[in-house]
Here is the input.
Amino acid sequence: MTKGIKDLQPARLEQALAARGLTKGQLASLVGVAAPTVTKWCKGDQAPEADTFERLASVLNVQPEWLTRAMLRPVSKPLYRSNASALKAARAKLEARTEWTQEIAVLLGDYVDYPKVNLPVRTFQDPEQISDADIEAAAEECRALWQLGRGPVQNLALAAESAGVLVIREETEISAIEGLSSWSELLGRPIVFLSADKANAFRSRFDLAHEIGHLILHKHIPRAEERDRYNQMEKQAHRFAGALLLPAETFASEVRVPTNLDNLLILKQRWGASVAAMMMRLHALGLLSDDDKLTLFKRRSARWGSKAEPGDEKWEPEEPRLLRRTVELLVNEGILPVESIARHLGYSPRDVEKLCGLRVNYFTAPAQVVELATLRSARSSDPAERRASASVADVVSFQKFKK
Here is the structure.
């Protein structure tokens, strides 16, 4: 290896390339080096000189020190809510940003206790083992564990985060992928990444319910590469989403039979589910025949098109708040100074804002905190001891992440 910044971690560089959607050739052009040089960096065969290393970090918009940390253990292979046109590079980008979220959560977790994971446990090893009855039972158990009752779910994102699911909602510019879910062994909890590009609250709720279905039903099933197996798992997650948002007995009792689009539009605002999702649910429950479902979908397409529906604008998309409130808590309690958070995490302020759900320019004007996570120091029963502990809190060194 040639002389240079020998602490550069090739895996970090590869991850940053994926997260930024850059090729090695594009990075070489931006940094001002030959394309083969970047390839050598990624292989660990060569190290950049100090000034080149600074340019590299600047182009990738990360802290130079971040590029020298040892990689954390990756999350499980994500399950995607996507169509067949999703490119490998697009998947790699979202996987990398999920890894970034895991690292942020791990580092912030040195100061707080996140909600305990509270999900139904299933041990299916193959999608062929999962019946429709299994899916309905899992959705019912999930509602019971989360104390959602039998009516509409008021805020699914809040319910999921309260059950220990880490949710990210970010504009990705990747229309082919609506979401993904994976498990973090380091955090001991699942991560759901939702695309915010369509800004449709009803579709976003369904996407989240769909990913929760994957987390419960398919936790022990490897990511499917064969199309038939993938489609089978997608259908199972779809059915779970419908069962979670529209419980059989309660929802069915409110549907006028035979139903029509206008009746379903009224129920849409009450249940927080699209007309299309309700039609699929009625079909799954045997309340719509194949022919009736096809007829209704044709009418829906003729009246409104295939994407948007009337009333879509009446609901605001549910925003994740666990990481946002964690950052706000640490800032407001004086545990971490706002101006140092992004630097210590290793990412740009904008990346931290997006992945943590903070508002734009948060780090120049932090918001008021509403507590969700619990400070570790709050475990003490003595208020004076808690205050003293908070006042002398130190920033955790990142040396442990280096080789």
Summary: The CA atoms of residues 131 and 236 lie 9 Å apart.
